[in-house]
Amino acid sequence: MRRDEEFSEFFTSRFDWARRTAYALCGDWSEAEELAQNAFVKAYAKWPSIRRETAVGYVRTIVTRLFLDSRRRRREDPVADLPEHGVDGDYDDPDARLHAALRQVPPKQRAALVLRFVHDLSIEQTAAELGCSVGNVKSQTARGLATLREAYGEPVNSECA
């Protein structure tokens, strides 16, 4: 019974974090909830063999790979996404603008950006989580940032920091 109690404590303390990570990747709260739940189901199945000090990274890797797998399986994209807000949406909200811009970044590039800049992982750590080379992470990150800048529509004012 100790295994269940230990996992329950881990799940309770980290589920919201995993859901926010999934949301940063997919931009949809319902899908984020599903990705996080599936990640914890997979983690529970392997719980006896997971080192507790690396459990957070293990779940983050599962969330990222589930997201990328879901995008690979999607052969048809909808013609247009429904907007988050009405036509007169609140685009003065920087978070809303950033999430809208992030949704325009291709999935692998988005995953690289989220791991590098949201989770502050090194290039090497990001490569390990994505299962690719360091060079691939560098190119995906550079392309993703270029796409994000273009989607964001205007230069970010660094004086506001």
Per-chain topology:
Blueprint: H1 2-26, H2 29-46, H3 55-73, H4 94-102, H5 107-118, H6 123-130, H7 134-152
The first-to-last residue Cα distance is 49 Å
Low-pLDDT parts are 86-91
Strand content: under 5%
Percent helix: 55-70%
Count of DSSP helices? 7
InterPro entries: RNA_pol_sigma-70-like, RNA_pol_sigma-70_dom, RNA_pol_sigma-E_actinobac, RNA_pol_sigma70_r2, RNA_pol_sigma70_r4_t2, RNA_pol_sigma_r2, RNA_pol_sigma_r3/r4-like, WH-like_DNA-bd_sf
Organism: Lentzea atacamensis
Pfam family, one: Sigma70_r2
Domain RNA polymerase sigma factor 70 region 4 type: 97-148
Index terms:
mainly alpha, 7 helices, 2 domains, DNA binding, DNA-binding, sigma factor, 68% helix, Rna Polymerase Sigma Factor, Chain: A, Arc Repressor Mutant, subunit A, 161 residues
Structure characterization notes:
It comes from Lentzea atacamensis. Residues 16-75 form the RNA polymerase sigma-70 region domain. GO terms for molecular function: DNA binding; sigma factor activity. Keywords: DNA-binding, Sigma factor, Transcription, Transcription regulation. The chain is mainly alpha-helical and 161 residues long. It has helices at residues 2-26, 29-46, 55-73, 94-102, 107-118, 123-130, 134-152. The chain has two domains: 1-81, Orthogonal Bundle (Rna Polymerase Sigma Factor, Chain: A), CATH 1.10.1740; 92-156, Winged helix-like DNA-binding domain superfamily/Winged helix DNA-binding domain (Arc Repressor Mutant, subunit A), CATH 1.10.10. It is built from seven helices and no strands. The longest helix is centred in the N-terminal third of the chain and has 25 residues, at 2-26.
